[in-house]
From TrEMBL:
<protein>
    <submittedName>
        <fullName>Class A beta-lactamase-related serine hydrolase</fullName>
    </submittedName>
</protein>
<dbReference type="InterPro" id="IPR001466">
    <property type="entry name" value="Beta-lactam-related"/>
</dbReference>
<dbReference type="InterPro" id="IPR050491">
    <property type="entry name" value="AmpC-like"/>
</dbReference>
<dbReference type="InterPro" id="IPR012338">
    <property type="entry name" value="Beta-lactam/transpept-like"/>
</dbReference>
<dbReference type="Pfam" id="PF00144">
    <property type="entry name" value="Beta-lactamase"/>
</dbReference>
<dbReference type="GO" id="GO:0016787">
    <property type="term" value="F:hydrolase activity"/>
</dbReference>
<feature type="domain" description="Beta-lactamase-related">
    <location>
        <begin position="56"/>
        <end position="386"/>
    </location>
</feature>
<feature type="region of interest" description="Disordered">
    <location>
        <begin position="255"/>
        <end position="275"/>
    </location>
</feature>
<dbReference type="InterPro" id="IPR006311">
    <property type="entry name" value="TAT_signal"/>
</dbReference>
<keyword id="KW-0378">Hydrolase</keyword>
Length: 403
């Protein structure tokens, strides 16, 4: 069996606190305390097609009925829930349904947290974007340590590649049984990888580069990467249900959705938990429910995580990407910022990230609209980027059309 490749790796009371301890069937909307319902306070226009029963809601229901959508989604306007839905199974073997408060693995959406941590340290004067990797982390050869900059790592222009494509990763990563083994083993593989291109010369999406950024966070802050992100990102944003869970927790916690990967031969979807590493990395596989991703967007844009100047710096476009044949025609520009993707879509700014894995049972995305005050989170435990992109584009068209 081919191992899934990442695009990027609770208590009962606390889990239910996300959207209220109310049992619901799949497909039922819930409203969070702290993310109130838009119908309860009409503070701005909410298109009919984005409300319960509207065109977007019907689109999701149709995909779920066809077993193409399994997961949760939440659309919020001005911090108030407009639509919350959950379909499919979090655990098929135990017949546990996905709920609006189900926790999902995020894949590469995790890179946003790593980027915020790094920019926080820059804001405090502890990191310089244009200093080299070797200023902060030891053990890399000179052609990397003395040439690759923090700026290049954040913008995927460092020339570093993807450690998860290395044969040694395939051989060793699922054997690691502790956080220390994952951290040290991953960095050992990355340190031996040659550059794929000269630093600063071209864009090349790099999971390895973001793992190195996590090591910079650890070296500069004096905390482990996981502790720093917990204390300075998750806690400050009010993301009480977001964490880096271990594989044993993922396997046993009934509130965390299992990833159901597609079978290349066309057979039934397969639970891919056993193919995962012990814990996620700065490049991927933190865990979160939809409501916490909305809180993250609001905390970031509201200045709780970064001062406004550094927030704008992080999310402004640095590297322009050309459109692809599958690009939504309403996308006018796409840029990479510092750990964020920045789009101009129908003359509106959108900032966010996506995540997923080939055959790995993960498809995720989040969008924040800084000028329209909307947030969208779609977290799936199926690997189907076609479905994810269709839902993302549908929501974008309706939100920007209402502006």
């Amino acid at each position: 069996m081919t191992r899934p490749r990442p695009c990027g790796p609770l208590s009962r009371r606390s889990a239910l606190g996300v959207l209220g301890a109310v049992p619901v069937a799949a497909g039922t909307a819930l409203v969070a305390p702290g993310i109130a319902g838009a119908d309860q306070a009409r503070n701005g226009p909410v298109p009919r097609d984005l409300r319960p029963g509207g065109a977007f809601d019907r689109h999701v229901a149709k995909l779920a009925a066809e077993d193409k959508f399994s997961g949760s989604l939440l659309l919020a306007h001005q911090g108030k829930a407009v639509l919350a839905r959950a379909y499919g199974k979090a655990n098929k073997r135990l017949s546990i349904p996905n709920r609006p408060d189900t926790t999902f693995v995020l894949a590469s959406m995790t890179k946003m947290f790593t980027a915020v941590a790094l920019v926080q340290l820059a804001e405090r004067g502890k990191v310089d974007f244009f200093k080299t990797l070797g200023t902060y982390v030891k053990g890399f050869p000179a052609d990397i340590a003395d040439k690759v900059t923090v700026h290049q790592l954040l913008t995927h222009t460092s020339g570093m590649g993807d450690h998860t494509q290395e044969p040694e990763w395939d051989k060793e990563s699922t054997k690691w049984t502790s956080t220390a083994e994952v951290w040290n083993g991953t960095l050992a593989i990355i340190r031996k990888m040659p550059l794929k291109s000269a630093p600063g010369t071209q864009f090349g999406y790099s999971n390895a580069g973001f793992c190195v950024l996590g090591e910079i966070v650890a070296q500069v802050s004096g905390q482990s990467y996981y502790d720093y992100v917990r204390d300075n990102v998750f806690t400050k944003a009010g993301m009480a249900h977001t964490a880096f869970y271990t594989k044993p927790q993922w396997q046993t916690d009934k509130r965390i959705a299992h990833p159901y990967g597609s079978d290349p031969s066309g057979g039934p979807r397969v639970d891919r938990i056993d193919d995962q590493t012990f814990i996620g990395s700065p490049a991927g596989n933190a865990f979160s429910p939809c409501a916490d991703m909305i809180r993250f967007g609001r905390a970031l844009h509201g200045g709780k995580l970064l001062d406004h100047a550094f927030k704008d710096l992080a999310m402004s476009g640095k590297v322009s990407l050309p459109p692809t044949p599958s690009s939504d025609s309403a996308v006018q520009t796409t840029h990479w910022g510092y750990g964020f993707i920045a789009w101009i879509y129908n003359n509106q700014r959108i900032v966010g990230h996506t995540g997923g894995s080939m055959n790995g049972g993960i498809s995720t995305m989040t969008d924040t609209y800084p000028d329209l005050d909307w947030e969208v989170a779609i977290l799936m435990n199926y690997d189907d980027l076609t479905v994810l992109n269709a839902l993302s584009s549908h929501a974008r068209r309706l939100i920007t059309r209402s502006s």
